[in-house]
Amino acid sequence: MASVFFSSALELITTPSYIGLMLCFVALGILLGALPGISVNMSLILALPLTYNMQTKTAMCVLLACYVGAMSGGLISAIALNIPGTGSSIATTFDGHPMAQKGQAGKAIGVGILTSFVGGLISFVLLMYIAPLIADIALKFGPWEYFAIGLFSISMIVSVAGDNVVKGVLAALLGMCLACTGTDPVGAVPRYNFGLHALDGGIKITALMCGMFAVPEVIKLALDLDDQSTEVRQLEKLRGFGISMAEYLSRWWNILRSAVIGAYVGLLPGVGGSSASLLAYMTAKNQSKHPETFGTGEIDGLIASETANNACIGGAMIPMLALGIPGSSTAAIVLSALTLHGVQCGPLAFIENTELIYSIFAILMIANFYMLFIERGVLNGYLKVLTAPRRITMVFVMMMCFLGSYSARSNFADVFVFVIGGVLGYFLQKAGIMRAAIILGYILSDIIEDNFVRALSISRGNPARLLKRPIAIAFLVLAVLSFAWSLYKSIKASKRKAAHSA
Amino acid sequence: MRELKEAKSDMILGTCMAIFAVLFYAETYHFKLVTLRNTVDATFVPRVLSVIVLACSALLIWQGYCRYRRLSAAAVEDQNSKKGAAAWGRMIAVSLVLLAAAASFKTLGFVLTMPPMMLALFVILEKPERRRWGLYLLSSLLAPTAVFFIFYYGFSTLLPMGLLTPVLARFL
């Protein structure tokens, strides 16, 4: 195994065509990921046609390099503009953007880059050696377990959604309601399309996310023409990654724990990076000695989120390669590219295509190094761009959001979703509803409903079968505990407020 | 004063969400259902969600009302915190510009829709004395055109051409 991996890696770092291609596509991925409205999926979809006439290994170099670059590039817009490029960058905005507003944009992005690299590296090493073991555990996850993990993630959202637990629940439920648009997962019954066929496919997450995060920023700028508080201030050149090695390594437990959470959640089909980064963020917050600093520019929050979402990349590859089940929508695109090139993923892939499978690990690993060097190399230049007046950059962001909303599936209705979702997002934010919680509720809705319906069907309509699934019960108990904890904190906060105002 | 506003806003939010929940529930009666064995149908999850949303909304209204009753006696109306009509006008203008761009996106295409939208946003977002017309005009004309061709030649993605189809087709 190791020899195949190292020979593949050696070929990749000594063949000029591979070096050139990977450098170009990591850079392209970073650029696309950094543009609001262009998601990781869309970056891969844009790169996919370029691989049609390539050999399988070369095609994988292009796609995976773009994947690693885009996944990391998303942190730039999340930190600088408070607009997450992807669902997995949502938790990055919680502390990354407040850091940028405090004049630490360079440090936030630098730490984000470094920790993305470390997260990716840890997950690739972990997964290379313990993939078969992890795949065995993942196989024990059935629909009841996925349903329970979905509910557990919802309870996590509620706990990050601020002091008022009712608003947290409402935000997550609103996201789930929006996700009901389209067709239902089993009977394909059209729901909430109001006779519009454009809504048959549901609301596209890219359009909704662009709207909810970008439009309110523009409206806020329009409301106060004198407000300069949202400008990113970073005039000094950044040295290193903005953090000393000793300071970074002192957070080793947070880094390792977040990488393991990311790799493991990435492994679970359909759960994805948004849950991973949120779980890692919440774990870091709950285990911190100063949980109250989270959400105000706490570096540990940023580290947890970015480590976990990049650790997800390796995790998502395992079910795809070992079982033929894509762990995320992005992995589904990579899987379709492999199928296009005649590679059949599944248990036999490790025997029939050993070299290619380990080449994929090597490509991911090397792309991760290229990502670190390229992103760090252009960071100071990018910081200069960030200091451009926000009132001008946000107009360009609007153009990119229009483009991203439309081109995700060439549907004009998505452009309306972007605008209407944006205006709605502004009012909801004003009313104290956390937009990130709506988006996360939307993402998790599919996992919860699909798996609940499937689980009930497998159990012949008997929900009591859940009691025979210990892993599912464990997650449900955790969900109840997490919700109870949020409720306790909420009551405590409202009592404190009442005492303060009295 | 801020808390009083928050309490009012909670009551408004709760009422809006309650109305939404009722409508969301009512709409499930319009689903064309198919018969499924051993599992729930397409109305189950939306109905469960609407009931929980309704309950949470009622709770939010109650919370807001209690706080409002407690705070309203002591509060004094703060005129300074009110945003001017001009600010709200700009907010409505931003929304209308975006809606107009969305509505004309199919007919006019990317290259024709984006320049007026960008120009309008540049103007709305900046004070009259700080406006840089040259920069606005140049960037709102050049950026969409450049992006259109970059996406076509770089990524083989054709953005909507709309009215410009005969003109742009010559270059593609």
What does this structure look like?
The complex is a heterodimer of chains A (502) and B (172). In chain A, 73% of the residues lie in helices and 1% in strands. By secondary structure, chain A is an all-alpha fold. Chain A has one domain (2-231, 243-494). In chain A, a hairpin with a 6-residue loop joins β1 (182-183) and β2. The model of chain A has no long low-confidence stretch (mean pLDDT 82). By secondary structure, chain B is mostly helical. Helix content of chain B is 73%, strand content 0%. At the A-B interface, α8, β2, α9, α17 and α18 of A face α1, α2, α3, α4 and α5 of B.
Shape of chain B: flat
Task: Note the quaternary state here.
Answer: heterodimer
DSSP helix fraction of chain A: over 70%
Strand content of chain B: under 5%
Biggest beta sheet summary of chain A: 2 strands, antiparallel
What is the structure about, briefly put?
The complex is a heterodimer of chains A (502) and B (172). By secondary structure, chain A is mostly helical.
